Amino acid sequence: LVFCNVCAVMTVMMTFNLQIVYAIQNGIDELEAAAAIGVIGVTGSCGKFFFGWFSDRIKDAKYSAALGFFLMSIGMIVLYQAKTVTTLYVFASIYGLGYGSLAPVMPYLISDRFGRHILGAAYGLLIFFATGVGGSMGPILGGLIFDKTGSYGLGWLISAAILMFVTFIILTLKPRERIPGSY
User: Fold this and answer.
1) Cβ(26)–Cβ(20) under 8 Å?
2) Torsion of CA 175, 112, 159, 28, to 10 degrees
3) Residue 82 in 3-state DSSP?
4) Are 163 and 94 in contact (CB under 8 A)?
5) Quick one: 80 exposed, middle or buried, by C-beta within 10 A (0-12, 13-18, 19+)?
6) Phi-psi region of 180 (alpha: psi -120 to 50; beta: other; left: phi over 0)
7) What's the pTM?
């Protein structure tokens, strides 16, 4: 769970910090480029509701997490191709929906795998690593890629590959062995 979240947040922070510059470099107006962050916010809110609802209705929430990571990966591929405002907003809608899965699904998975009695400490540790390590690595990686290639495009493709890898890794999570009478 920590590995998957570190990778996901790394791509999120790279995207949030660099997508506007990328869009402007591709000829998209500054205001329209910045508005894509708002689209991610709105669709992310929808994703939080959907993925919370979906996780309650399936056998294992890891499938919900995998779907969220997969949507984020597809969004990154669309961002790579974003030469128009329409394509940029399609990216923001797909990516935002997938991004919305992180908030409700991760605590759900921690609680399910390790029990509610340690949810606070375990989720705090997960967020520490995901936000601290992954969040700080993403913009740095994106900047290094730009410095070496002159474009953020390779960063989006690497992010898509990482998110696709994480999609499959999360599916390997084993369920917790239930002890009768435990919660």
Assistant:
1) no
2) 140
3) coil
4) no
5) buried
6) beta
7) 0.92
**In 10 A of CB 37, how many CB atoms?**
14
Q: Which amino acid is at 157?
A: L
Closest by CA position to 70, among listed 43, 101, 92:
101
pLDDT digits (tens, 9 = 90+) for 130-143: 888 889 999 999 99
Structure tokens, 149: 């290639």
Residues 51-100: tens digit of each pLDDT: 999 999 999 999 999 999 999 999 999 999 999 999 999 999 999 999 99
- Please give the pLDDT value at position 116: 86
Contact 65, 105 (CB under 8 A): yes
Match 């990516």 to its residue by tokens: 95
| Residues shown for the chain | 183
